[in-house]
Amino acid sequence: MNSAATDRQPVHRPDGDSIWFSSPARRQLYALAWLLGLLCAHLLPTLPGQDGLLVLTLLSLTLLWPPQARWLGWSGLGAVYAIWAASHALADRLPVAATGADLDVFGTVVGLPERQPEQQRFELHVVSWHSADPAFRWTNAQPTLRVSWYGHEPTIRSGDSFRGTVRVRPPIALVNPGSFDFERHALAQGLDAMAYVRSGQIETGAPSGLFIDRFRQNWSTWIQTSSQHPELGPLLAGLAVGDQAAISDASWQRLRVTGTTHLMAISGLHIGLVAAFAAWLTQGLYVLWPGLARRWTRPDLAGLAGLAAALIYACLAGWSLPVQRTILMIALVIVCLWTRRYLSSFQMLLTAAVLAVLFDPLAPLSAGFWLSFLGVFSLMLALPGWRVEKPWQAMWRAQWVATIFLLPVGIAWFQQASVVGPLANLLAIPWITFGVVPLLLLAMLCPIEAVSAWLIKLATLSLSGLWHVLGWCEQWSFASIDLPETTLPLLLLALLGAVILLLPRPFAGRWFGLCCLLPLFVPAINPVALGHVRISVLDVGQGLAVLVQTRAHNLLYDTGARTRGGFDLGEVVVVPALRSLGVRQLDRLIISHLDNDHAGGRQAVRRAYPAALEQVGIETDPSARCERGEHWEWDGVQFQFLHPPRHFPDLGNESSCVLQITAGTKRALLTGDIGADVEARLLHEPILGPLSLLLVPHHGSRFASSLPFLDATEPRFAAVSSGFANRFGHPSHAVLERLQTVGATPLNTAYSGMLQFELGPEPGTSPPTQQRAVSRRYWRLAPDALAGWDRR
């Protein structure tokens, strides 16, 4: 063998690794494996118990010995760390059995309180609590509560002390396709329970220690007051100190449609701008103090000043995930400068990601984690290989790259893609970064109040110009598209396609990357067979919304509530669920009656589906009423109103539209809020017979679902739409007993999430799918766990 060939042979170290696989490369591989293991653990439907966690730990440690399997060992240790952290966080939650308990609490208001016309919401870090119930058990001695205080209570400020009695319940989400997962959000934010104030008082005064949130709240209030603009003032407060509580629903809608919601999160670009400005100011110190150069080099002092300024602004900005990522990367740059070491951009990003999840292993449960790190990764992936000659080309390239790569992530998290987003961001990003944020920072630094207020007004004027442009973009009919929920395989395929599309020239095969992206926009929707009907009882809490689908038609029965705090179930739950279920056109919108829990979301649905024919139980316009005897057929499925008859008076609940749906030999009855009197009238209907599905009247009130009515209809399944632990006690135990007497299977959306039934001409009725069961996540309570509270 010649010497040249001998020189190329790998020299093996004692641990079995070769010098061809250098030590830095191994460290990167192990760090990446540890990170991937931690991320994959968050995909588990359930968490292993202590025994399972111990076995996984021992197995991972064993795999660290053989060099060939060492990456598997590190991956397992990452999963162990995530499972351990998630298990402890879930153990700190309020037990379901403690729902509705009253606690005497004393604690400190943390974060930024949110004030609405009839209530305030704030987070309370409890220092001590006491329960008068000797059977009450909660192992968390100092929980964090999300508290609502209704009525004309005093204004709450960050750092205030609260003492009073609150009624608690676990953080339980409404579970529907496309809905915001509040249980995941609560776990990521460290919220252990929800509560509302029964009686209490605020102990005001200066907060103990350096309470940053008090400064943030004061600045937010002052900025909104100085701007003198009810719509733009909250936006400026969001840009300056990260306070988004006062931003209106209409503003959020404009930002979503134009793909600019990220502008309301204080980004790494803003933090970097502050750091760069502070570093530039240090150059003047060498003029004022020439001897400083003997102690500090210019790069070292500039880096230290930049990091200090970035840290101060990060605290004022609320320390969000994008801010944390930027701070970590700035700190890594400075460490490299001081130690005279070199780290590539990929190594810095990987190190920052590892440190971020090391400090907070539940961070991947937040969309901000993925959007922040993947956004930077996309720029690193594509830009080095592009030869850009002009600044505007670089800006356009960066925007195009970020849009393509983050598109699959945005669709997976928000089920929406902005068509005008790339163009809107091309204008909005530099406008905000250089035309609004600097004015806000100068206003916050200026010691003269009059000058500071003038700078805020100038920032308002600057933002108003951009806001009008975004409003113009919002009006375009094709501004955004709504998409159903995607699956993990489709998401991974789309990310692969994005990587291929963004690879630098002269890489061939970009057509394959485009093919990988296309399935994300044409997801598989399970069509309804001809002659069949699919009935989805949405989980809208203490209210009602039912989607009825045939082969080519869609009907919505009721729209959920709009709460007194302004929370619109129609906009937040019903419309996203319809879009995730593939509803592009709504043929009929039926409002059973005009009570808020049935019609509160009506306007939001009308805005999303303006072409739908609307009918109401009792309406001033006779052509818009649902009237007994009216019937129609869609795709072999029969529909007929059984109540109210013509000239029926407005009796509120008793005037509800009652709709019977017949698919072959199967029948379903949607009943609204009728009571026993209307049920007795329905017994005389000749077409009323045994039911495959009964929508239990009035959410299971004891004044409905009379035994003669249930005997006549013999329902196979009985669906109850109610809120978990609602104050009305729905469904009544008496009603549940009557249902069981006639052989019906009762199901409650409060425990099951959305219920979906499929009826057709085939014999037998299949059990419905329960959204909590089919979309199982470890942070989400199982239906049996919630139903157990009702059986306690």
Automatic annotation (TrEMBL):
Chain ranges of the Metallo-beta-lactamase domain: 542-724
Subcellular location: Cell membrane
Transcription regulation keyword on record: no
Entry membrane topology: Multi-pass membrane protein
GO cellular component: plasma membrane
GO biological process: establishment of competence for transformation
Spans through the membrane: 29-48, 68-86, 263-281, 301-321, 342-359, 365-386, 398-416, 428-446, 453-470, 486-504, 511-530
Gene3D superfamilies linked: Ribonuclease Z/Hydroxyacylglutathione hydrolase-like
Pfam families registered for this protein in UniProt: Competence (PF03772), DUF4131 (PF13567), Lactamase_B (PF00753)
Keyword field: Cell membrane, Membrane, Transmembrane, Transmembrane helix
InterPro entries the UniProt entry points to: ComA-like_MBL, ComEC_N, Competence_ComEC/Rec2, Competence_DNA_uptake, DUF4131, Metallo-B-lactamas, RibonucZ/Hydroxyglut_hydro
PANTHER family hit by this protein: DNA INTERNALIZATION/COMPETENCE PROTEIN COMEC/REC2, RECOMBINATION PROTEIN 2
Protein's UniProt name: DNA internalization-related competence protein ComEC/Rec2
Lineage of source species: Bacteria, Pseudomonadati, Pseudomonadota, Gammaproteobacteria, Lysobacterales
